[in-house]
Amino acid sequence: MAPLTTLLYALSITSALGSSVSESSKPFSQEFRDNYSVLKHYGGNGPYSERRSYGIDRDPPASCAVDQVIMIKRHGERYPSPSLGAGIEKTLSKLDPKTKYQGDLAFFNDWSYYVPNKCLYNAETSSGPYAGLLDGYTHGTEYRARYGHLWDGDAIVPMWSSGYGRVIETARKFGEGFFGYNYSTNAALNIISESESMGANSLTPVCYANRDSATCDGLSNTMPQFKVAAERLNAQNPGLDLNATDVYYLMSMASFELNARASSKWIDVFTQDEWVSFGYVHDLNYYYCAGPGDKSMSAVGSVYANASLTLLNEGPQKTNPLFFNFAHDTNITPILAALGLLTPEEDLPLDRIPFGNPYSTGDIVPQGGHFTIERLSCDKTAISDAGSYVRLVLNEAVVPFHQCTSGPGYSCPLEEYTTIVKGRLPDFVGQCKVPHKDPKSLNFWWKYNSTTELNYRNGSVPCQEAEAQR
Fold first, then answer.
1. Which phi and psi angles does 153 have, rounded to 5°?
2. Helices in 180-271 by DSSP H: which ranges?
3. pLDDT at 462
4. Are 255 and 39 in contact (CB under 8 A)?
5. Handedness of CA 111, 117, 122, 123 (dihedral sign)
6. What is the pTM of this model?
7. CA geometry: angle at 103 spanning 98 and 106, to 5°?
8. What residues make up the catalytic site (predicted)?
9. How many domains does the chain have?
10. I need a surface site. Which of 191, 339, 361, 379 has the fewest CB within 10 A?
11. Range of 94's domain?
């Protein structure tokens, strides 16, 4: 058949089948493109998003049932901190509301700052689809559906929160979601002080001795791409004098705006390259200031890791099946460092973005991020023995524990998990030089209050307080 004849024949077939081809859909998409979402490049500023997973089923394997859960959750979405807010307000002062802006800033004259009162700085948000209080409540309802079988509907279940206002409110909303109508009678919120004098008996332990903070102290909050963004906005609007630091504050402002509003026009002001760079700035800060890039952080995280190891080996029969804890982002990253999860083979470079970097903050500690340890009771299968296994879940994605994946659903046998963790945990008391008078171990999981008096705040609620009434 001649080439032209072949082409005409092909076109006729295509025309004849066109309606059926266009009306049918493929059961599996063949498109795996840039895997980009701005939510993954907000650092720890923006709304919660689930971790990008390894494709391991979140539900327990068919041969297993979860019999114990130990979770630590970051507070829900919030407004910026006062210090960040001051930087944002200083940058906004460069933008004259009487000027008619052009280009990427054309929307500015119809835009208003989303923090109506300075006393809201640091507070959890209560408006918009990504509101922090909604995050806590929704998470509670989801975990009731997932782990409700571990509560008999009658027992009083303790929960633990660090003593910071927004963290406590997240714990309360989570409790309302999990326990429903029974929250007022069956949850017992315990508030653990964030004071340094709590030593190891804390959800927020600190290490002021032998801090490995040289790199952290020298980090910059700008990248070359921020200068490009400033030059572009200045060129579009003659007379505007933004610099790279201003761009950092504007991008920070955009990332927090979604915590309080349904959308942010500031997101489209900046390019994908600029957002990727912004996210990496935060990766560096978490890695070197609150993660494995600071060697003392493993010691800090060992407090929680070691205590949870005791719970897992005691099992739900001796202790409790549910351990819900609430703290901050920088209390979760040391735990991951202590367990050796997501630690890069080499320190993160300061002069370039290493694509494929496992230490991507948007996947680790977004607002409302959480780390869950599951104890599984499993039956014997063709490839595994009956017994207890451990699964680690970060932001609802199963994270295999090092090379220990021989259990069902790539879990780790509890005995092997115990050996690995014990072999790698540093000594918090010795390395951080905990004063003799301060507690040397975490014991509030065993010595807790069963009263419900802290489940709700008493009295009026001011605009914002750093430390909640105890």
1. 85, -5
2. 183-186, 214-217, 224-236, 244-257
3. 67
4. no
5. negative
6. 0.91
7. 40
8. 75 (nucleophile), 329 (proton donor)
9. 1
10. 379
11. 38-302+318-338+346-431
Residue 105 lies in a domain: yes
| pLDDT, tens digit (0-9, with 9 covering 90-100), for 343-375 | 999 999 999 999 989 999 999 999 999 999 999
CATH number for the domain including 129? 3.40.50.1240
For residue 452, tell me if it sits in a domain: no
Residue 372: phi and psi, rounded to 5, are: -120, 130
pLDDT (tens digit per residue) in 144-195: 999 999 999 999 999 999 999 999 999 999 999 999 999 999 999 999 999 9
Report how far residue 312's alpha carbon sits from residue 444's, in angstroms, rounded to the nearest whole number: 16
Comparing C-alpha atoms, which of 423, 427, 290, 416 is closest to residue 361?
A: 290
Give the model's confidence band at 1: pLDDT under 50 very low, under 70 low, under 90 confident, else very high. low
Q: Read off the tokens for 15.
A: 């025309």
Neighbouring-strand partners of residue 192: 162
- Taking only the tens place, the pLDDT of each residue in 240-273 is 999 999 999 999 999 999 999 999 999 999 999 9
CB crowding 448-467: b at 16 or more within 10 Å, else e: beeeeebbeeeeeeeebeee
**299-322, pLDDT tens digit by residue?**
999 999 999 999 999 999 999 999
* pLDDT confidence of residue 143: 98
Residue 90 maps to a domain: yes
Torsion from C-alpha of 80, 81, 82, 88, nearest 10 degrees: -40
Q: Are 280 and 223 contacting, i.e. CB atoms less than 8 angstroms apart? A: yes
Residue 14 resides in a domain: no
